């Protein structure tokens, strides 16, 4: 087990915005209260929102991923587990399912070499949650939650459901890998145990796995926290364990409200609209036919899932100015040019003052060069990366250039 903290210090960048806050309850609603009023106008009408006394919301997500060995699972595919069972697991994470989409039927396919043997579904199911998303493929669970949720507390219920006799066994017997990834919290003092600090999160994870962890970046810009327990054989590659995320901050208050407030939004399907720009090979690959689920929270906020083959793209936005945040993540492999297009498309959805691009690959060969793409109008404030035999990751933090 190894730990590494890579902190690169940079000048503090301050971008001041109008102050307003909101909290999203487990039922997907936001608690809005206060005395100051934020007025936003669009072609669809006016929105008056209480501003200064509204509680802020933690938009930055925590992501838990578990990839199982199919032969050790209780079921032949995780997608065969009923939604009610996932709902019970999610109670431990303090969130709930709002809707779901799938890239194909949850039906087992015959083995290509042994027709009498059923293999897998070869697809993925995406659950839109009250706080972000859950993605379930044949052998992998990705639980991404925001706010004050507790996804690590869902570990035991998941293991109990998938590998009933996991206790007393070495994790490498039933897992290919486990990971926990997040950006630095905006409001760490609001988090609930075991999410009160990175040290407590790592300590909790080490109760179940044998992992390495690293922190990239600087508190003045952005931090990227990554924990990985890799149980693959040396030299074994896994191209499904890939993530590229763009996390936008300091969103334009007026623009973000017009995009991510359902009563004001002129475009009710922002992910569908941005899809081709975001996925530059969308006309000739699996991304050409996604199944998309988009949802506007009341009174503000937006989430969407898109699933295609065994991959996903997901967006979550909390536009309240005091803690404005939007994340766009995909598990699809991206070329260098496609990564740049992905970033530009995310920025095209809403004007932002800063953003962080993160990259993760369980097999380092799939990370690429780990260099930040050139984005017009933005300067790279800091970039850092981590390469090891067990995983690779990179963090690139950008700030808008002065006009």
Automatic annotation (TrEMBL):
GO process annotations (BP): spermidine biosynthetic process; spermine biosynthetic process
Single GO MF annotation: adenosylmethionine decarboxylase activity
Signal peptide coordinates: 1-22
One of the record's GO cellular component terms: cytosol
Domain of life the protein comes from: Eukaryota
This protein's UniProt keywords: Polyamine biosynthesis, Signal, Spermidine biosynthesis
Keyword Cell membrane included in the entry's annotation: no
Pfam families from the UniProt entry: SAM_decarbox (PF01536)
Coiled coil segments of this chain: none
Record pathway: Amine and polyamine biosynthesis; S-adenosylmethioninamine biosynthesis; S-adenosylmethioninamine from S-adenosyl-L-methionine: step 1/1
Family: Belongs to the eukaryotic AdoMetDC family.
Protein name (record): Adenosylmethionine decarboxylase
Native source species: Polarella glacialis
